[in-house]
Design brief:
Blueprint lengths: L10 H7 L22 H13 L7 H4 L3 H10 L18 E5 L9 H17 L3 H20 L8 E7 L2 E8 L3 H7 L10 H10 L11 H13 L4 E14 L7 E19 L2
Antiparallel strand pairs: 1-2, 2-3, 3-5, 4-5
Helix pairs in contact: 2-4, 5-6, 8-9
Length: 273
């Protein structure tokens, strides 16, 4: 009898299993152990969920034993200022994770180099130079949430993965989350639903800054453009998520869904040339 192939650690598994894991003795935990991790988005989302669960969920090393999972685990243990080997190379790796500085400094050579490696990773995946530049700019604009809105940039983590025909990046933090961020403005002070907050912040023309600033239109257009690259986008905050699927040649599907609570903000983008 052939041994069973390991289960892929993907978003479908997370959304199916995590809501049912209620304790450290719950039998459903076993479905998460020994998974195969290829995409970094589900890996990062799970790692943040596991860290916040205080032992209810299996640790990341239990869930996925792979080079990419080990790299993520090591980076999660560090702060930006504690990294002794900050890289300034412009050449990307097959995958890479990094903490971010506690405050935004566009002149930080290590941050500049990381964004350049994101761009190089996109070209390695098969995107032309101009598209790769736009992908890197989108990465930096989405990462800006860490400094502008999370109130906890030191918890932030960024990463990318490149392979032939696939480019992926992800950004996550353990900050205040989208509802609390939008509550800072009077017109959203009564907002309590994370799903509505995600739709307003990332899909419609509303942001923490208010409907008339136009900044929400920028996010909406950017996500639409990313999804048009045979893209799959997932955003999480609170007990909701928003997914944008551009893998159909004729339609782009957006859906908002309720799932396990995510403390902070998470965004994952996967595109194909």
């Amino acid at each position: 009898m052939q041994p069973e192939s390991p289960t892929d650690l993907d978003y479908e598994l997370l959304d199916d299993v995590l809501p049912g894991v209620t304790s450290a003795t719950c039998a459903l935990r076993s479905e998460l152990v020994g998974c195969r991790a290829v995409a970094i988005g589900p890996l990062v989302e799970y790692a943040f969920q596991a860290a916040a669960s205080q032992g209810v969920l299996p640790s990341l090393p239990e869930v996925a034993t792979s080079e990419v999972a080990s790299a993520l685990e090591q980076v999660l243990k560090r702060r930006w200022s504690a990294q002794a080997d900050k890289a300034t190379s412009m050449h990307s790796r097959p995958f890479e994770f990094s903490r971010v500085p506690g405050r935004k400094d566009v002149s930080d050579p290590h941050l500049v180099a990381f964004v350049q490696r994101v761009k190089h990773a996109a070209t390695r995946a098969g995107f032309d130079t101009d598209t790769a530049r736009k992908l890197a700019a989108s990465f930096l604009e989405l990462a800006d949430n860490l400094w502008e809105h999370s109130k906890a940039p030191a918890t932030g983590l960024v990463g990318y993965r490149t392979a032939t025909g696939v480019f992926e990046f992800t950004i996550a933090d353990r900050g205040i989350g989208v509802v609390a961020s939008m509550n800072a403005k009077a017109e959203y002070s009564d907002l309590t639903d994370a799903g509505t907050a995600l739709e307003l912040a990332l899909s419609l023309s509303g942001t923490e800054y208010g409907r008339r600033t136009g900044r929400g239109d920028g996010y909406r257009n950017m996500l639409a453009n990313l999804s048009n690259m045979w893209g799959e986008i997932r955003v999480r905050s609170g007990d909701h998520g928003l997914a944008l699927d551009g893998t159909s040649p004729t339609t782009r599907e957006q859906r908002t869904f309720q799932t396990t609570h995510f403390q902070g903000f998470f965004v994952s983008v996967l595109c194909r040339p």
